[in-house]
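re: that chain from earlier
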Amino acid sequence: MIAAFVENDSDHAHLVAMWVAPGARNRGVGARLLEAVVRWAATAGLHFVRLDVATANLAARRLYERRGFIPTGRSRRYENRPDLVTSELELRLIDER
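^ sequence. v structure.
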């Protein structure tokens, strides 16, 4: 399961959820889900795909980084979950040089 959206007239898609059943993990399912969102965003002409990943979720972070996502330097702590810290990662889809 994966979910992403574009807010208003933004230049990026925000990946907000991804989950793979435990029995299907480490079989490339997450990578294929992620690739589907990246393809969708690129087809829509968006410039980036961004996401927040919990700093403690190293397996997810490795998956995103293997797919080319890099840290933006932004992070946040959730008000209703002060123990949860996330880091923002992004994948550039359009080279703006």
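The chain has a mean pLDDT of 93.
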